[in-house]
Amino acid sequence: MGDSGAGVPQGQPVPGTFFRTVCRPDAVYSDTFSVPLARISADGGALSPPSLTDRLHYSQATKRYTFIEFNSSLDSSISFGPDNIVTTATTPEETLFRRDQCLTTSGSDVYMLRLFNPGSANPTLNLNYASFGLFTIQNASLGGPLITYLPFGYALPTGAAGLNRAGVATYTGVVKGIARDNSAQYDVIGTLTTTVDFTSKAFSTKLDLTLKNPQTNATVNIITINFNQSGTPTLSTLNGTASTGSGDVVGVLAGPQAEEIAMAATLTVASPQNVTSDIRIALSAAGKR
Q: How far is CA 216 from CA 41, 60, 207, in A?
């Protein structure tokens, strides 16, 4: 199912056809997504394991995304719409939103939402039921700037009828994230290959990752990570652990017939660049079969 995006402002992320036709247009939040979520701090690269949340919403009426952000000192939701798009940093593949919250004494808290655009206008991958993004918080109010990155997938999850199927499906897609060691921060890009056995409810995921220096765009490391099923197999939430280093992945199948997948992961692996430090990675991904 494609989506031409007709009638949508230039640069605005276009929810796929299913987003528009199934959900109630009069709802406060037309779409409440299942959101696999990870977290990494720019200060030392502290990781939080991924979890399945409902932290992203989309309003059909206002064309606004709302991200619910929780931490020890902030309990709030941040809304992003067409008026918050950073046009100079928006491409057919991704849209960047920015909100600045001015504070009286300590500067501004900055919130940014980067979304991998759903729909056929995306030249990299046409997704209709799932996608992924990155929510960034720069907290001046916490004595910062303290920067936290939350890579997340988001999906309209497959219902019980769509999961009640036999056979094996392979999903391929795109990965993006953030990595840190003790001396530097890196951009993470890569590819996703996930195999789901609907009969046994088992799954496995391979991530081929490239770490790049964000200043020079030079490749600093290439990593292949495999995740295997962990815990009791279930198709409603996909949970896995890394076979190399230490790490976890959480995923969710999307679409009426499990056509797509979204996930988030955190992992720690040895760093060939900095022998005294591991590389800590937080990422999100989406793909289709």
A: 22, 39, 23
Q: Which pTM was predicted? A: 0.84
% of the chain at pLDDT higher than 70 = 79
Using DSSP's 3-state secondary structure scheme, residue 64 falls into: strand
The stretches of 29-175 forming alpha helices (DSSP H) are 160-163
Starting at the edge strand found earlier in the chain, the sheet holding 94-102 runs: 47-53, 35-41, 146-155, 130-139, 108-116, 94-102
* 178-207 CB burial, b ≥16 within 10 A, e <16: bbbbeebbbebbbebebebbbeeebbbbbb
170/187 Cα distance (integer angstroms)? 26
Q: What pLDDT sits at residue 219? A: 86
From 15, 1, 190, select the one nearest 95 (Cα to Cα): 15
